[in-house]
Structure formats: structure tokens, C-alpha cells
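Re: [help] complex structure
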Amino acid sequence: MAVDVDPSPTFADYAHPERLVSAEWLLEHQGEPGLVVVESDEDVLLYETGHIRGAVKIDWHTDLNDPVQRDYVQGEEFARLLGSKGIARDTTVVIYGDKNNWWAAYALWVFTLFGHEDVRLLDGGRDKWVADGRELTTDVPAPVPVVYPIVERDDTVIRAFKEDVLAHLGNPLIDVRSPEEYSGERTEIPGYPTESALRAGHIPSAASVPWARAAAPDATFKSRADLEAIYKGDAGLKEGDTVIAYCRIGERSSHTWFVLTHLLGFENVRNYDGSWTEWGSAVRVPIVQGAERGEVPAR
Amino acid sequence: MSDAQLAPALAEIRDDFLALEQRERLQLLLEFSNELPELPERYQDHPDLFERVVECQAPVYIFVEVDADDIVHLFATAPKESPTTRGFASILSQGLAGLTTDEVLGVPDDFPQTLGLTQAVSPLRIRGMTALLARTKRQVREKTAAA
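Output below.
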């Protein structure tokens, strides 16, 4: 049974306000049956240094990625993972994390691949929680394991593969990496040179909208009006567009996928998780360098 | 890999990690993270001396000092929001403490991969520690050449 949505007027303008909760809401509902809070960070140890009381940890790398193939875990591992965290199929899951909810949004996107229905983000994530001086604890909860059904991952709706991107050319693409990565000055994100590609630049016609533009200085999401100005104004997206977002490995672009899908209400947004580490190393795919979007090559 | 090359403190740290279960290894890394010493006062206002380890996912800065007795001192700073990186820096700073320049240069480059952390932390994150070690050695080489 789902837990009440956060009625906060802050979220009312978004297309799907039920996808966000505030710290006040969380404190009010903490410990309620049917609610599990999940912390998902870039840094694998951050949870251990202190987390929201009752929150369980899910790590994007060690829990959600397949350890061998470049893919996400399969239905069996996902079921085992969620069951062990006390998450049932109808549990309301609230995810929060560091860096503007970057990895939290990634986890939410993976949950969505498995069709987990009620999954929300704590607006502002870990950063705002800490900045507001709220309590953190090092007590690790021991959730009672539950049975989560084995669900086959659905990669057809919100996930795009390289072939899908090639077929999509001519339709809107959003490149959420830094301007330097977009123009091709560098193949990796500033500070993250360990995940590189052989070629630099961007997919022809992609609009450059660095992912963090969607976040306000306090790590919450910007208002709907501000987001529309960025994605519909600057990037030129139109109502009803089919959109693919990409970055380097698909994590920053899942943040943008969340914004476009749940805050602005676009219904056909896919995240290309192969992203630049695949495209920039693939043979004979078109690439544009420089600050201009560039033309889609004739086929 | 021969242990002959590995400094006793580093070998001990490695053995401590390997003796633990995967999850406990994270706890030990957290302990190292908490033990990363504050910079000595003489370096606190000298960000100019420090080199950013850009291969790490968090802002970590290192500075190597070689004293008159040819002993290497590694100073590192990383924010508390980045405990994994702090842990890596702390392991190296404790493991290299008191070693001579030759001994530091003799530390195998793949030492970070031998700690048994690749599964608990992920190989991608371990690369940050490999870079920390490589940059430390480079600074040692530069400082020895200049001396």
C-alpha cells in the first residue's frame, strides 16, 4: 500500500508532484509501514559516515551494475537486493543521495526499468539534509527481509541503446555533460578521467544542457518555470517530443531523464546509458566537435 | 608479486584488509578515512603547494616532502563528504610513513589492487588510489632530482 504523497505546494507545479518529497514529509512519515528510505551516493562509504535514520543503502556500482557485463543486474539479483532491504513490490521507496541527488536519480531510473511503481526522490537530497542541520546516524537498520517478485527488466521504454540513438537521429537529443566534453576539448568529465573514450565531441544535433543546471544552489530542483526556460527555451524541446538524453555512462543523464519525465511531463524520454564511453569509442558513428550542435548526416 | 619489495606497514595494511569479510573491509576503510590527519600547521595556508589528484572522483590534494634524512612524508587533504578518497589517502600516508625515497619508489604500482577492495568498492573507484600512489612517486622523483 502506497504512503500518502507530499502535498507541499512547492511541488504542485511539476507534472508529477508525487515523485518528490520534502524533509518535513519524510520526518512525518519515517518508520511508517510501506515506506523504505534508500540512500544512494557516488561515494561508497558516505552512508557509513552517517545517514538518515532508518535508511538503507543501495550502491549504484556494487549493487545495481552487473559485475561482469556492462549492464544492470537482472531480475533475480534485483529481487534479492530489494527483498533484503525490506522493499516489497508495493513499497513506497524514497531515494536520496549526494551531489544534487545525482546517483539517487540513477537508482530511481534503474528501479523504473524494473517497473517499481512508487519510487520518489527526497528533494535536495543528502546535501540539503546536512545543510539544514538535520540528524544523521551511523545506526544501520536491520530490515526484515521480504519477498520481492522476480521481474524482467524492461529496456524498451526508458532506456536507449546505441542502435536506438542512430535510429533516433533527427529527433531531439540532450547532451548533459560539461561544455568541454560537449565541444570535444576533453573526453572525460573534469575530475573523472578514468572513464574515457577514444574520440571527443558530441552526437550530431544534440543540445548541450549540463545536468546540474536543473538544480538550484541548495540542491533542490529548480521551479517548473525555470526548468521550462532551460529545456523548452534554451534547448528547444517541444511538447510531445521524443527525447534521448546521454552523458558519459548514463548517470548524469538519468537526473535529466527524471527532470524531463517527472517534473516537465515529457512522456517519451529515454536515457542512453552507453553514452559517450560507448559512442566516443564506437566505429563509424557520426560525431561533431565544437560548440555548435551540427547537422545530422544524410543516410 | 614479491613481498620483498613491499614495506612492512603496507604489507600489514594489506593483510588486515584481506583477513576481513567484504563488508567489514568497508568498515576498515572508513576507519582509515577517519584517521587521515589534519595538515600540519605550516601547510594549512599553502594550497599552492598541493597537487590535485584529478583521477580521483573527489577533490583530493597531495603534497610530498622529502626531509634531510631522505625520508618521505605524504600530506593529503580531502573533504569529509568523500570518505572513500580520504580512506585511500590515509592508507598511503600511514603505509608510506617513515620510508626512504627508494623504498617509496619501490612500492609496486598495483598495491591498491591487492587490498581486496575491488569488489567492495568497485574497480573504478580503486583507480583513484592507483593515481594517488603514482602521483606520490612522481613527486618523490621530482624532489629527489631537484635535491
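The first strand of chain A starts at residue 20 and ends at 21.
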